[in-house]
From TrEMBL:
Superkingdom of origin: Bacteria
Residue stretches of biased makeup (Low complexity): 200-210
Organism: Eiseniibacteriota bacterium
The protein's name in its UniProt record: NYN domain-containing protein
Composition-biased stretches (Basic and acidic residues): 216-233
InterPro entries the record matches: NYN (IPR021139)
Composition bias type Acidic residues, residue spans: 184-199
GO MF annotations, alphabetized: RNA nuclease activity
Amino acid sequence: MSSLQVGERSRSGSDLEMQVDIFETLLDRPHVETFLLMTGDRRFIRMVTMIRNRYGKNVTIGGVRGSVSNDLIEAAAGNFDPLEFEPVAAEQKRDSFVRFVDRLERSKPFITFKYVAAAMTTSIEFPGMAEEEARDFVAQAIEEGVLRKEQRSDGYRVLILNRERTDVCDMLEVESNGHPEGLSDYEDDDDYFEDEFDSESSVSVNVENDPGPDSPEDHIKDQDQEQRDTYPY
């Protein structure tokens, strides 16, 4: 079995790099018999089918239960290796969230609903958290007043950690006296933040090379509208 290391970039970049690595391995290392793909994206169905049928290799899909496409698992002949994580207490998760958002605010010009939720899914502080769960968690933090949604002068909505809350202040004081947790891939990758608001970045991987938004402003507006439609507050 061969382990393929994929660079941490935006989803479209890492997906493309994974596909290139797979092709190179198939052509240059024919002795490799098993491919373990750590993805739940159904867009890899065609790739999995090709690996198995054209090259006669075994494929196993690795990922978190509930976030992996059933069709993708079926394409891999049912070979699925689920990632298992120990459950984290709700209070501990909430404290981690406050510290997490604090670091995001300090490392980025501003943060949005979608950005925070996406960053949570790659952070070691929230192991196994799916995208939908992360969105619900951020929405709950807004409802409880831990986060505030503010509209900037240019019309865009951003998230602000409510540092006026006593519990938030207490948690950040504890954090300042200790050692910060490890950074997530999104926190530690300035390229992702640039890609997130880059007019040339594509929101998703598509064979037809589906174009991205016309401008960074349009991209942020699209995110803002999506958040209002899903979480209207």
